[in-house]
Design goal:
Shape: globular
Structural class: alpha+beta
């Protein structure tokens, strides 16, 4: 191993001077380069007759090393369309703005009337509106998707430019006509009626992820089950009994909490909502963090209000999606473990004693499920080996998906169902808010079984084909059969 040389005495002096300067800047909260800090933020949403108006008020402080001449803002109004009637003011004075050319979200630049001096504070107010794509429907609703509707203050341009974003905590107010239900990220801080409208206030925190709002003249039903209060919001009456759906959903939440530990806090309210925004929120990894945000949302398929829908399949989808709250959002998988997370979520749903997967998770039904997966894996592998065109990548993903589902069965074979759930609980609770990979999964499994799993993980994750020891346990279940 090479020996590190000691720096010259002059170098130490220079380093000491630089370090002292850094500490001095840190002590007075001054950043190197252009920078500003959002000290306080309040965003108001007002809805009436299909028009959504946004007003953002920001108290800013120049904590950089030089004055600033302007502020850039991203207006990411992608979902319901481009923002219109944009106005800006600083310290009460209306200011002109101009669009900033370039790729990415629409940006504007607000030129300040005088340079923004260091350590000085400014109050910025932005206002704009847009038509709700759903405003013309009889439901009278709007949905603000995460990251697509609220303004984002951008850091100043230049070397070491920093700032913008949002503070750790800020206020959101949503004002709607009476009779419209409102749900949003954050902690509810109450409502207030004013002349035919209702103001809904929410405290937002950084851990909640990107902010969304769902509102409309939904029909609401509430069910208490297993200590949870379940809110059903739908545009149409559900075909199935709300009481039965609530009881079933409560059992699922109770089982996952016992297996994997609590999602966080003491939140006992769960929303089952209709609408495209819900599908987007649930489908976009990292867009919102329901568990950490003390907010649990279930996919709208549970409403069973769509022609041709299957009751059991709707519950299956809800069971798998709820398992993903723990495996995907409580401690999200690293990219290499994403397929494993999906497989484990489906496996957990099948293990529910009251669930739709129970009939295929024990005894002969379990072996039959493994048979189908092995044959599906073999077919996808054959297609992958044969294909040389654009479908080759698709066959690879399909083959690996089947392999990871078989891997979940192999994990259960190796550890047992209860120890596997305990291992997942150990891992997810230890890594709250962080990412987990196969090394963390292996460590948690070894902690429960007290057995080395290195060769087991290598054979499944780093070698082609299905491991021979797994095939030998199911001799009549090989792909050749």
């Amino acid at each position: 191993m090479p020996v590190l040389k000691q720096p010259r005495r002059r170098g130490w002096k220079r380093s000491g001077v630089f370090l002292a300067a850094m500490l001095t800047l840190a002590a007075c909260e001054t950043q190197i380069g252009p920078s500003f800090q959002v000290e306080k933020q309040r965003v108001e949403v007002r809805y009436e007759d299909g028009l959504v108006r946004i007003r953002g008020e920001y108290r800013l402080r120049n904590n950089g090393s030089r004055p600033l001449a302007g502020i850039q803002v991203a207006l990411a109004a992608v979902n319901p369309g481009a923002a219109t009637d944009v106005t800006a003011s600083v310290d009460g004075a209306a200011l002109a703005w101009k669009p900033v050319e370039g790729s990415g979200p629409r940006r504007i630049e607000i030129a300040l009337p005088a340079e923004w001096a260091q350590k000085k504070r400014r109050t910025l107010v932005l206002e704009y509106g847009f038509r709700s794509a759903l405003g013309c429907t009889r439901l009278e609703s709007f949905q603000l998707l995460p990251g697509s509707w609220s303004p984002e203050l951008l850091p100043p341009e230049g070397l070491f430019g920093r700032g913008g974003g949002t503070p750790e905590k800020w206020e959101l107010q949503v004002t709607v006509p009476e009779g419209i239900q409102v749900h949003a990220t954050g902690r509810s801080r109450g409502t207030r009626k004013r002349g035919g409208t209702v103001e809904h206030r929410f405290r937002q925190e950084a851990q909640h992820g990107l902010t969304y709002v769902i509102a409309g003249r939904y029909q609401e039903s509430q069910v208490s089950a297993e200590g949870y209060r379940i809110h059903f919001w739908s545009a149409q009456p559900p075909r199935a009994s709300v009481a039965d759906m609530g009881r079933r959903l409560g059992l699922t939440l109770k089982a996952y909490t016992e297996w994997f530990g609590p999602l966080g806090g003491h939140q006992r309210d769960v929303w089952v909502m209709d609408g495209a925004a819900v599908r987007y929120i649930l489908g976009a990894r990292g867009a919102a963090r329901p568990g950490l945000a003390r907010d649990t949302i279930v996919a709208p398929g549970l409403f069973l209000s769509y022609p041709g829908s299957d009751d059991e399949e709707s519950f299956c989808a809800a069971d798998g999606q709820l398992a993903a709250l723990w495996l995907d959002w409580l401690a999200g998988p690293a990219p290499e473990a994403a397929a494993t997370s999906d497989a484990l979520a489906r496996h957990a749903a099948d293990a529910l004693p009251h669930g739709c997967g129970a009939r295929r998770s024990q005894g002969a039904a379990r072996e039959a499920a493994i048979t189908r997966l092995l044959k599906s894996w073999a077919a996808a592998d054959a297609n992958y080996q044969r294909e040389t065109g654009p479908m080759r990548e698709s066959y690879l993903r399909e083959r690996d998906g089947y392999r990871m589902r078989l891997f979940a069965y192999a994990l259960e074979d190796r550890a047992g169902r209860a120890p596997l759930h305990a291992a997942l609980r150990r891992m997810l609770q230890a890594l709250r808010g962080a990412a987990w990979g196969h090394d963390e999964l292996r460590s948690a499994l070894e902690g429960e079984t007290q057995a080395d799993s290195a060769e087991f993980f290598r054979s499944w994750l780093h070698r082609p084909g299905i491991p021979e020891d797994f095939r030998s346990r199911y001799p009549s279940k090989t792909p050749e059969d």
